[in-house]
Amino acid sequence: MVSRVVIDFAEVRLKRRTGATYGSHMHHRGGLRAVVALSAVLWAGTACGSKPETPGTGSGSGTGTGTGTGTGARGDGGIDAAKGAPTFAEVVSTATAPTQIVELVKRDPGSLAWIMFLYVNWPAKAGERGVPDPGGTLGATPTVFQTWKEVHEVYLAGGAAPQPWDDGGPSGPPTLSLTEIDGTTLTDVNGNPITYTVAMNQGAFDYIVSRALYGWNGQAALRQTGAAPVAFPASAMEVKAAWKILDPVADKDRMDHYLVAQAILPPANTKVAVGLTALHITSKALPSWVWISFEQIENPTTTGADYLLPIDPAIATVNHVMQQALAGTPLAYYRANGVQTEFVAGGAPTLLANSQIETKFQKTSSCITCHALASVSTGAQPRLDFFQLKAGNLSGFVGMPPTSPFGPGPDQYSALDFVWSMREAKR
Ligand code: HEC
Question: Which of 65, 131, 147, 406 could form a disulfide with 85 if both were Cys (CB 3.0 to 4.6 A apart)?
Answer without folding.
Answer: 65
